[in-house]
Amino acid sequence: MLIDILTIFPEFFTSPIGVGNVKIAREKGLLDLRITDIRDYSRDRHRKVDDYGFGGGPGMVMMVQPIYDALKEIKDEKAHVVLFTPRGNTLTQNRVNELKEMEHLVFICGRYKGIDARLEHFVDEEISIGDYVVSGGEYAALIVIDAVARLMPGVIGDIDSAMEDSYSSGLLDAPRYTRPREFMGMKVPDVLLSGNHKEIEKWRRTESLKLTLARKPYLLKEDSLNEEDRKIIKNLRNRDGKEE
Ligand code: ADE
């Protein structure tokens, strides 16, 4: 996969793309990252890429021309152009799984008050990383790059581990424990020390369902639940009802 990143802060990416799963994906030749400085496409002597917004008000707006010119040079017929903005669709694991299949992604990292609205005509998708504002699309781009890279074959040594993550099964992951068996009086649940893999799986599934039901019930999709899950959820709901 090729990811082109359009940014006014190319240096923002230097360290993060050189560590962890993104580094591994690049070294394995699975991920090619190309960073383009939007200022290189400015027609201004001072490499200006922003201007005052029409109609007044505070904050600068990124001009459409430098980004359009950069896109024109970078885009091929396979390119899927993503603009990062709080206005976009909120990123989900499902969407990450789909983006992972694309051959060429082009990420536009917005700054200031936003980008001239006419850029919309040259964008395939707008993505938000959540209902809050960060200083620029660079933060969002890094999140998507990592989320995609870690799913590439052979990047995470233990592929089962990626499959068991929160969200990949549509549920939050069960609590995890490591040594010591007891810390400040708090003990690791007995079942995890029992060696009984069937019971451990059952416990994990119940804890996953419990956590998801309590914290992110909107993740529980009817079609991803089996008969056993439904029984567990029914019991959990009954129990909670009685406790109230
Ligand atoms: N740029 C600023 N805030 C953002 C957000 N929440 N998601 C994506 N891009 C952004």
UniProtKB/TrEMBL annotation:
Native source species: candidate division TA06 bacterium
Intracellular or extracellular location(s): Cytoplasm
Any Pfam family: tRNA_m1G_MT
Enzyme class: transferase
Coiled-coil annotated residue ranges, if any: none
Protein known as: tRNA (guanine-N(1)-)-methyltransferase
Superkingdom of source: Bacteria
Any Gene Ontology biological process: tRNA N1-guanine methylation
Catalysis performed (reactions): guanosine(37) in tRNA + S-adenosyl-L-methionine = N(1)-methylguanosine(37) in tRNA + S-adenosyl-L-homocysteine + H(+)
Protein keywords: Cytoplasm, Methyltransferase, S-adenosyl-L-methionine, Transferase, tRNA processing
Gene: trmD
GO CC annotation, single: cytosol
HAMAP family registered for this protein in UniProt: TrmD
Recorded family membership: Belongs to the RNA methyltransferase TrmD family.
CDD domains tied to this protein: TrmD-like (cd18080)
GO molecular function: tRNA (guanine(37)-N1)-methyltransferase activity
Main function: Specifically methylates guanosine-37 in various tRNAs.
